[in-house]
Design goal:
This protein has 331 residues and is α+β, with helices and mostly antiparallel strands. Helix content is 29%, strand content 22%. It is built from six helices and 13 strands.
């Protein structure tokens, strides 16, 4: 199952984000953005971006609760853009802070050129000289010198334009690529199925956190397989929803998961437009679940050669049983 998934809101005006970064005089850093943490790990990625930009330990970074009093006019955390757009906004705010700190550090070191100043792993260098300042002492000195230690960053995804009349333009900042091989087995007597193994090669660019990204790919795969095989919305003849609870609407669980999941990151990826050439991870791997539908179709054809079925999802156990014994599925 190959995927090529565009990353951006198709409504161009939503492709913007802002961030507020405060460095406190004890050396801790508070970061506020419009990104909503819902278990996808966006806050941990934002911490990593801020720490990398400022050259300090990630433990110093604290993500504040998402609040429109702090960050107004936020876009939704959707379209797999949360880490990209808010991460770039954090990067911009951190660069503003560094632009204020570097001249101050240069003056402390007696240098004329602030471009020689670097902060890496909390070691502050001016040229080849390591300055006898800890991060805490530097920030305390900057605050005492009345240097602003708060900055706002705004990011608007560049290069997006799309004409809905002509259907031409550049709707996406970049694309995420990947492929999945899905192996499935059908019980031809009962119509039940299982997914034996899934092998994936996925393009995450230069991943900000491979552990988080792996969890997102594996979780999206399971969600996608459930989408294609279990999650059926049913109504009665009067339009009343029948699948209105977890007892009637089936979702994948641990026992439904493939017996084996093998994930490899695409080597020599060109990277994406995300911070530090990372790529979005949220929605693209959901599409691997479509491969589960076609794996079941191949299994059906192995049992009934020449079987032709229309694309109807989800491919529930009931539909599998009907296809095995009648060659048809209910619409």
């Amino acid at each position: 199952m190959p995927i090529c998934f565009g990353i951006s809101f198709t409504n161009t005006m939503l492709n913007q984000a802002n961030a507020l970064v405060h460095i406190y005089n004890d050396g801790s850093v508070g970061v506020s953005t419009g990104a909503v943490e819902m278990g996808q790990g966006v806050h941990e990625k934002l911490r990593a971006i801020a720490a990398r930009c400022l050259g300090i330990r990630i433990e110093r970074i604290r993500i504040e609760s998402t609040n429109t009093t702090r960050n107004a006019n936020t876009s939704a955390t959707a379209a797999s853009t949360g880490a990209d757009m808010n991460g770039h906004a954090v990067r911009i705010a951190c660069e503003v802070l560094l632009a204020r700190l570097r001249p101050f550090i240069a003056r402390l070191a007696g240098l004329d050129q602030e471009g020689l100043v670097t902060i890496r792993r909390e070691q502050i260098q001016a040229g080849e000289r390591l300055l006898p300042y800890t991060w805490e002492k530097l920030i305390a000195a900057a605050w005492a010198a009345r240097i602003s230690l708060s900055a706002h960053g705004h990011y608007a995804t560049p290069g997006l334009h799309f004409d809905r009349v002509t259907n031409k333009g550049e709707a996406f900042a970049y694309h995420v690529y990947g492929a999945a091989l899905v192996e499935a087995t059908i019980d031809t007597l009962r119509g039940t199925c299982r997914f034996d193994a899934v092998r994936i090669v996925h393009d995450a660019g230069c991943s900000l956190n491979p552990g988080i990204d792996r969890g997102q790919v594996e979780g999206a795969l399971l969600q996608g397989l459930g989408w294609m095989t279990l999650e059926e919305v049913l109504h009665d003849d009067k339009g009343r929803l029948l699948t209105d609870s977890m007892t009637t609407y089936k979702v994948p669980d641990l026992f439904f998961a493939p017996g084996e999941v093998e994930l490899h990151w695409l080597e020599r990826s060109e990277g994406g437009n995300g911070p530090f050439r990372s790529k979005a991870i949220g929605e693209p791997p959901l599409m691997y679940g479509i491969g589960g539908w076609f794996a079941l179709l191949d299994a059906l054809r192995a049992a009934r050669p020449g079987l032709e079925l229309p694309y109807i999802s989800p491919m529930t156990h009931e539909r599998l049983l009907m296809a095995l014994h009648t060659g048809e599925t209910a619409g």
